Amino acid sequence: MTDTTSGSWPAGGTPGDGSARTVTLTDLLRVPLHRARLVAGAAALGLLAALGYLMLVPPQVTASAVVAVRPVVTDAFTPSGAAADRAVNMNVESGIATGTEVVQRLADSVGGDPRDIRAALEVEVPTGGQILRFVYQAPDADRAVQAVNLAAQAYLDVRRAMYEKQRAEMLRSYDESIAKVVAQQGAVQRRANSARGTAAADAAVAELAGINNQLTQLNAARTEIAAVDVNPGWVTQTAERALASSAGHRPLFVIAGLLGGALLGVVLAYAWESVDRRVRSVRDARDATGLPMLGTVRRQRFRGRRRAVDADVRYVAMAIAERVRQPARVALLAAREDPTALTASLAVALSAEGREVYVADDHGRVERLRDAVLADRGRLPAVADAARSIVPKPRVAGTPVVTGPAAESGAARRPSPHPPAARPSSDPDATLTLPRVGSAPAARNGRLIGADEVTVGIGSVRFGSWHQGADHGLVLYNAPPAESDERGVAIARQGTAVVVVERDRTRQGDLRRLVERLRAAGVSPLGFVLTRSGWG
């Protein structure tokens, strides 16, 4: 799977052609990782929703009872056929088990709304068998066990009552038929008794014999119906408290809520990333700017305080020093971020090599710059101090070089405790001249050090506004965010610019807009520096 990057400004200043880049699994995982707070927040909301559901909805206990359904036949010993479900329609039996009459009896016994009881009662029918499994859910085990046993027994009572009603109807029908045949038999018997001729008597006797056979068949059929066993089945497994189990698998709700929230967070992370693209890597910054990379500044933790890796800052300072020649005016520009920490670190790294660096700022951040420079100066390696100690003092032109024993004796001579023209006189009336006590600035390498100057290594760093640094050789301008202040781009026209990109914070759209503004103003930036957001 590949995606085509949008055309960007290459180093030559013209838009480049889009290049295909393979999207790997790491690229897909990078978005949720960078939006970890969003994913964690969504997962926490899902977990809270699951816990709230479990707290608001009372726990359910499930109890079950099994009923074996028996087909009601006239001859219990007659085979019912190859398939048992042909003898009894289990779909009809399931409908009767969850019918209104069973639910009403259960509501009258345990109490409660019939609608809630119907929702809590469930009847399962295994395929190809004559078994009904009654399942009932209730807030406590006792209620669940009682209700499911009553449901099974209510089904059997309802089914038995239905069979008994059918048998009673059939017996009543047989009794009516037998009564009619008996009445007919009596009438024929009286006619036969009153017959005068042989032919009439024979006909009456023959008719009476047929009626007697019919009456015998009716009595036999009624006897079979009366002997039918109307028992619809038996409860083969009753519910017990020890067999009741918690319904719903409550821990699964917690896991489902957590995973569901995390999945929703990942989807939201991709949706947010699609509308708010940030610089995630060097490739993203290079594609957005089309500029060469001057270096990357990583971040490390030191005693709980995040700060930049000093070696990375020195490498970036070397790259900038290679591309500029004094007098140089370098503006450190960022889209919406504050480059103060990087400006101070670069000033320390450049001055440690012997340069006189002037840090300019017109946005009220001079004190922050000074504090950052003093903090970074304390982390300079010992090599810089050693290099400063062996730098010879510049010799004034025309001064003879002293060699030999005189030089050795001069070097070993201790200074006089009395300043020149201040030696004590033997004249008691002579006037004693004392030296004036003043606040003269300190000197370093024959040059006076001002009050706004910080000595760093074998160089120095001075602070002030942009206009005050007009006569300095190397000026670093700590530009305000370019999206809200145009002074950084305007000052970069007088020199050059370094684009500061903060990883995971700088938006790609803002970065492209900044580079386009610089090029439209006629500025050719040196390159970009990729930093880690939040350091300093």
UniProtKB/TrEMBL annotation:
<keyword id="KW-1133">Transmembrane helix</keyword>
<dbReference type="InterPro" id="IPR027417">
    <property type="entry name" value="P-loop_NTPase"/>
</dbReference>
<feature type="region of interest" description="Disordered">
    <location>
        <begin position="396"/>
        <end position="437"/>
    </location>
</feature>
<feature type="transmembrane region" description="Helical">
    <location>
        <begin position="252"/>
        <end position="272"/>
    </location>
</feature>
<dbReference type="InterPro" id="IPR006311">
    <property type="entry name" value="TAT_signal"/>
</dbReference>
<feature type="region of interest" description="Disordered">
    <location>
        <begin position="1"/>
        <end position="20"/>
    </location>
</feature>
<dbReference type="InterPro" id="IPR050445">
    <property type="entry name" value="Bact_polysacc_biosynth/exp"/>
</dbReference>
<keyword id="KW-0812">Transmembrane</keyword>
<keyword id="KW-0472">Membrane</keyword>
<protein>
    <submittedName>
        <fullName>Lipopolysaccharide biosynthesis protein</fullName>
    </submittedName>
</protein>
<feature type="transmembrane region" description="Helical">
    <location>
        <begin position="38"/>
        <end position="56"/>
    </location>
</feature>
